[in-house]
Design brief:
Length: 543
Amino acid sequence: SQILTVPTQPIEGQKPGTSGLRKKTRIFMGRHYLENFTQSLFDAVGGVQDKVLVLGGDGRFFNDRAVQVILRMAAASGAARVIVGQGGILSTPAASHLIRLRGADGGIILSASHNPGGIDEDFGMKYNGANGGPAPESLTDKMFARSQELTEYRILEAQDIELNRLGEQALAGLVVEVVDPVADYATLMESLFDFDAIRSLIAGGTRLSFDAMHAVTGPYAREIIETRLGAPKGTVLNAQPLPDFGGGHPDPNPVWAKELMDQMFAADGPDFGAASDGDGDRNMIVGKGAYVSPSDSLAILAANARLAPGYAKGLAGVARSMPTSRAVDRVAAKAGLECHETPTGWKFFGNLLDAGRVTLCGEESFGTGSDHVREKDGLWAVLLWLNILAVKRQSVAELLREHWAEYGRTYYSRHDYEAVASDRANALVERLRGLLAGLPGQSFAGLTVEAADDFAYLDPVDGSTSKQQGIRVLFTNGARVVMRLSGTGTEGATLRVYLESYETDPAQHGLDAQEALAPVIAAAEELAQIRDFTGRSQPDVTT
Ligand code: VG1
Ligand code: CO
């Protein structure tokens, strides 16, 4: 085998977004595209000479080919060892754990997460550092800068590695170690939760349903929920990972996980349901006839985490992304915990977790996690829920009602307008930025603005600042509207409108969220003129 130095030219647009670089699969498969970005990534981290890396992905179309290319490039750049999940598979949280467990210098995860997969859908690639967490903005900026000046990349000429064979193989001087993607992760889960208690909950007749959506969590959920926790075979739906996720959106929300939602709202449905996304870091929790909004899930986990052995000594603090509802803030206030508000994306939690300032964090986009890894973790959230239910011996619906009675209910919804013309979406945001200073005191559809800003974040650990992270409008009645553009899409712009209101009266806790939020929805429309700017009469996806 021989190391080739291949001349290349910069390719435009290799700029990582909220969570890595995401593009149409055909773009990633284009000439030099993957190679250029991989070399830019290696260069941005100071080279990979003698380093140990973790590598794997969610199994979507092109995952296996990309793994082979990255391995040959790592070999050409002198990496010492790459730990790869069998078949090229690793969920995002399992990859994060493996980096930490093995003391690796970093890892590459191939996924476009909840975006659909296939040759005409999406592909993605992200880098996580030695702490197991997503590269901070300072590093992704360097990757992008390097991609704009790249003139060559290095790659080894060699045969493919046998990705299905466990154990070590050589690629010139590089050791490729193929590992079981599930085993270490499952062991970590057993160390955090009371598996005996969950087993007896299940043995006692509590019925579960977990929708893996033909994405990466299938094998993980089967091993943990069916094999180790003893749930009946078939508890895990759509358990076979497929390169195109069976043609679906592997996005665990009521819209895309409709099969599970229908089960959970059927008369003889299961007691507890959950779903995860393409790369296994998101979760949706549903009780029998009771949907749990992700922001409520975070608050409930924060209020009850102590019931699980891994969190018995209590929490250091909590963090949520800015658009996530303030339900968890009320839990933190009552418990006297530090509570942080960060920009969207898990990379902003890393410093707080590393510094021991927070134990739990979460996002409204079906993401929850803790300091056990440095990514959000879908199955982890499911197991923490089950552990809590096993101790409290309550249904999900009862737990929700009890939580709202104690803390008040935060009604919450997100409206997404997808594939909007970028110039229109930018114009909407620009217009709002221009209005901000004058908003306090003005009324929209009967709601009066108390404060408004474009969210900026000062990282209390490293002192870095991130600006323009979302338009935030607070109303005098405690309601809130947030608007921002997505950083994970691959077509046009996606406008996200986050709506929230607060209700203390338990008699008013049983409303449908859209109904309860109707006045806030009307205020958002009057303020931002969403219909005019997007040309849409209603959102494409409501969660
Ligand atoms: C979205 C979510 C954000 C999440 C990100 C990555 O980003 O809103 O909360 O962290 O996806 O999740 P954006 O920029 O499109 O709003 V995943 O599971 O797609 O890695
Ligand atoms: Co994901």
